Amino acid sequence: MRPTPFIIGSLLAVISVASAAHDHDHDDHEHEHEHGHEHESLSAHEHGVGSLNLVVDGGEVAIELVSPANNLLGFEHLPASNADKAKVKALQAQLNDADSLFVFPAAADCSVEEVELSSPLFETEDGHEHEHEHSDESAESHADIQAHFHFNCTQEAALDQIQVALFSAFPGTERLLLQAIGPKGQQGGELTATQNLIRF
Ligand SMILES: [Zn+2]
């Protein structure tokens, strides 16, 4: 595994903080969507909404998706039944197939280098790390899924846009709050199924 350039990690950290602040700005007027379970939430987390942080540094593209598990999976409890475990495995396979989730210009010659997935829902297969948790509590808690994708593009001059195909892959995802740093600077905004193109 080649080391991730320090600059990409730093920039992702910066824009993650920026998007967390952005979430706070929306707390007041999105309150109505959250009532009922907001007080139980472990993180500021609204179903249907995720965040996408993206850095393009030359031909290197780092993308971080942070999403409520519900958006990708349809549930957030720790998988106990065989059916739920199968859904979690299928989701991991789908996220690892990153070339189908992000569409780059063919001329840029981009390929996925690395995918890292992290979620409480992905850590239960061996069973012994979570003996201290109570299953009755986990059934009520909210869980996020984080995915880091690293792509390398050999023709960086042709990398002028990225289409985000997460909406068709995961219909439970309605909006992604975007923070991106591209060749021409920083941009933010909101991606949806009909506005899923990031242009640089
Ligand atoms: Zn939730």
Strand sequence of the main sheet, in spatial order?
Answer: 4-5-2-1-7-8
What is the typical, i.e. mean, pLDDT? 82
SS content category: alpha+beta
Write down how many β-strands occur, each being a DSSP E stretch of 2 or more residues.
Answer: 9
Beta-strand fraction estimate: 25-35%
- List segments where confidence is low: pLDDT < 50 over at least 5 consecutive residues: 17-42, 127-139
- Name every ligand kind in the structure: zinc ion
Taking the sheet with the most strands, its summary is: 6 strands, mixed
Structure description:
The chain is an alpha+beta fold and 200 residues long. The chain has one domain (49-199). Helix content is 26%, strand content 30%. It has 6 helices and 9 strands; from the N terminus they run ααββααββαββαβββ. It has helices at 6-25, 31-34, 69-73, 82-96, 135-138, 166-169; strands at residues 49-57, 60-68, 102-103, 110-118, 144-153, 161-164, 175-182, 185-191, 197-199. The strands form 2 sheets. Strands 4-5-2-1-7-8 form a 6-stranded mixed beta sheet, with helices on both faces. β1 and β2 form a beta hairpin. The longest helix is centred in the first third of the chain and has 20 residues, at 6-25. The protein is globular, with a radius of gyration of 17 Å. Mean pLDDT is 82; it is low at 17-42 and 127-139. The structure holds zinc ion. The site of zinc ion has 6 residues, from loops. Pfam families: ZrgA. Residues 1-20 form the signal peptide. Residues 125-142 have a biased composition (Basic and acidic residues).
